[in-house]
Amino acid sequence: MSAYLALFRIRFSAGLQYRAAALGGIATQFAWGFMLILQFAAFYRTNPDAFPMTPSQIASYIWMQQALLALFMTWFVEHDILSSITSGSIAYELARPMNLYNRWFCQATANRVVKATLRFVPILLIAFLLPEPFRMTLPENLEQLSFFLVSTVLALCVVVAFSMFIYTTVFYTLSSAGVRLVASVLADFFAGAIIPLPFFPDGVRQVVELLPFAAMQNMPLRIYSGSITGSDVLWGLGLQAFWLITLVILGKLAMRKALTKVIVQGG
Amino acid sequence: MKLYGKFFSIHLRCQMQYKASFFMTSLGQFLVSFSLLLGIFFMFLRFNTVEGFTFEQVLLCSAVILFTYSIAECFGRGFDAFPMMIGNGEFDRALVRPRSEVFLVLASKMEFSRIGRLLQAIALFCYAIPTSGIDWSADKVLTLFLMISCGVVIFFGLFVIYAAISFFTIEGIEVMNIVTDGGREFGAYPFSIYGNEVLKILTYVIPLALFQYYPLLYLIGVRDNPLYIFTPLIGLLFLIPCYGLWRFGLRKYKSTGS
């Protein structure tokens, strides 16, 4: 365990070196959040009755999404992992006395956490001070807030477990660009990255809410904004736990299968 | 021009060497913008209109933005990748050649995989042009033509600014993505829905609304003052400060020495 912790720490401090890039990123995400809120506000003005969330809920959803972007976006990938497979340095990784799946899982989680750490405090700080239609609000009670935290951890793990599948496919294809794009576009769309799941049409929504993608950013963001409350929260956390366990088991099986016939590229 | 044609054919043949990768990237480009469209579609299933615009009118708007952005990116890619050109000293080589720098940067890169987005824009046009309920008389066709041609130029100007800034910063700055990528993504809806302040910025500072929102009003018949046909042409004035900034940066340019 301590080996994994050390790995986490190394990745974390390496990521902290790029502070200027983070600043630029914050400005961009901030403008992005504003435009998204204005977009939803236009739909709200057009027909408030058809709007499935309250304006303040959507503001909280969007700001939290921007703040935690690095945790949940499936298109962030570990280039170190991808290149270790294509360059052949995977041979060293395999020689280490650590489980490869756990090791990569740790590495990917750490990188996401450090990216998010640099960004989320300033974004949230400003978002709480904004005037009314844009202002971010706290959840109604402490309970909802703590469920949000649990759900965030689960969602992060589901996202990483999902991306492990993408890394495993690289063992077979060597070039990951295609698989990666298709997988991440699908996952982000069904996780509510483009429009939140409550805006999906009836019929489609009920199905999408059961998919593993719903266990990603959809759950924590909706718990935070108050779009999911009461017993639905517990049900949602259960769904996340279920998909996390399923994805990890399947992911480990897939990787073991891929490793039995791995061909190390020379050089 | 003949020389540009030669560069064009070299880049095309070069990218066709990696056919699988080319098609994969094109497919990816297609999917990314398709998922955005699906989002718009879902929103309209629920709301039917937004601020008085129908689904077909919004699609027409998305098509114009998607089309102009893809073309500008395909041919202006050299400016988009310009920070790298400065960083690795490639630009110093361009400076000693007997052609204008703008031409050499322009010809240094072309990105044909943007065809994925372009095809989608064309498909959107095919759907939106007949269904939008617009009576396509000659003046409306001219309006659409001006929207597209001036739109390409204005997006292109934004890439030039992005490149010019990197004369000073050496690295590309992420903040510019707000106007380029942001313009593409949020331009899927007429810019007026974002409120008056945003519309003003996009009219007077970064003139994206001049080829998107105002002529659209004429197209769908909300305004019938023929001046609205020619608003995209006013947007072309934007090229003057773009080129000015480029010249200014070029004069201040110090090589990175690598």
* Percent of residues in helices of chain A: over 70%
Pattern of helices and strands of chain B: HHEEHHHHHHHHHHH
Q: Approximately what portion of the residues of chain B adopt beta-strand conformation?
A: under 5%
Number of helices of chain A: 12
Rg of chain A: 19 Å
Ranges of chain B where pLDDT stays below 50 over 5 or more residues in a row are none
Q: Number of helical segments of chain B? A: 13
Largest beta-sheet details of chain A? none
- What structural class results from the helix and strand content of chain A? mainly alpha
What general form of chain B does the structure show? globular
Structural class computed from helices and strand pairing of chain B: mainly alpha
Describe the secondary structure blueprint for this structure.
The complex is a heterodimer of chains A (267) and B (258).
Chain A: H1 2-15, H2 19-46, H3 55-67, H4 69-72, H5 79-87, H6 90-95, H7 100-129, H8 142-173, H9 177-190, H10 204-208, H11 218-225, H12 231-260
Chain B: H1 2-16, H2 19-47, E1 49-50, E2 53-54, H3 55-80, H4 82-87, H5 90-95, H6 101-108, H7 115-131, H8 138-169, H9 181-186, H10 196-205, H11 208-219, H12 231-235, H13 239-252
Antiparallel strand pairs in B: 1-2
Helix pairs in contact in B: 2-7, 3-6, 3-7, 3-8, 8-11, 8-13
Description:
The complex is a heterodimer of chains A (267) and B (258). By secondary structure, chain A is mainly α. Chain A is built from twelve helices and no strands. Chain A has helices at residues 2-15, 19-46, 55-67, 69-72, 79-87, 90-95, 100-129, 142-173, 177-190, 204-208, 218-225, 231-260. Chain A is globular, with a radius of gyration of 19 Å. Chain B has 258 residues and is mainly alpha-helical. Helix content of chain B is 72%, strand content 2%. Chain B has helices at 2-16, 19-47, 55-80, 82-87, 90-95, 101-108, 115-131, 138-169, 181-186, 196-205, 208-219, 231-235, 239-252; strands at 49-50, 53-54. A two-stranded antiparallel sheet of chain B has the order 1-2. In chain B, helix 3 (55-80) runs parallel beside helix 8 (138-169). At the A-B interface, helix 2 and helix 9 of A face helix 2 and strand 1 of B.
